[in-house]
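Tutorial handout. Part one gives the primary structure; part two gives the three-dimensional structure as tokens.
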Amino acid sequence: MKAYFFIFIFILSSNLFAQQSTAGKQVSTFTLDSPQLKTTKKIWVYLPKNYESSRKKYPVIYMHDAQNLFDAKTSYVGEWNVDETLDSINAQVIVIGIEHGNEKRMEELTPFKNEKYGGGNADNYLEFIVKTLKPNIDKNYRTKSNLKNTCIMGSSLGGLVSFYAAIKYPDVFGKVGCFSPSFWFNRKEIFSLIENAKSFKTKVYFLCGDNEGDDDMVKDMNAMEYQVNTKRCSCKMLNKKIIVKGGKHNEKLWREGFKNAYLWLF
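Part two.
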């Protein structure tokens, strides 16, 4: 898993599988200034198939690494097929993808500085999502903007920052998709936060493979699930944990796990 992480850092801006766009017609993009990050972010928007013909409001999933979600042309080593998957089940949800910051990806998606690898700018990244992006989305799209209908989801460092978001903004994110979370990057700090939390009411879908290249992945996820369960009664069924036999730290694992995660969370 760590090997994948470092390869990604060095060639994340490379397009190894150049081809025609595979993004569906329900996917569009726009740019938005981020004063918190002192940059401009490209935002991808997936709307459900009946959006234009209805007046309904929809729940929203905020997802990281937008380059990998909808389009094989922009993906690192394959996309998640988020739009095709949601279309196939007529999902009633809006997905907002936030493009990673290329060489600043590690900084944006890590809550605390790692002594060896740096990082630690997730507070500003999440503030951008909560105070700039979400208000923009709620203003311009028909959203169900409350806690129950707002989810944040990601993989690897995106899994780490999504879980952190649930701790930092418990009144914003009511659901989390936590795929192959890189808890190792800030293990001491993130476990300290959850251990010291008075409560944790967020609905969480944990997923990882048992062959991610690092024995700590399953161990850390099991330990985090245990800590979460100490904050609430297990009878409320607010957690689900999936460990995929043979699953590796890659888009294939996350693509194949996305549908069930969506169905359970919503």
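Part three, for discussion. Residues 9-18 have pLDDT under 50 and may be disordered. The chain is about 35% helix and 20% strand.
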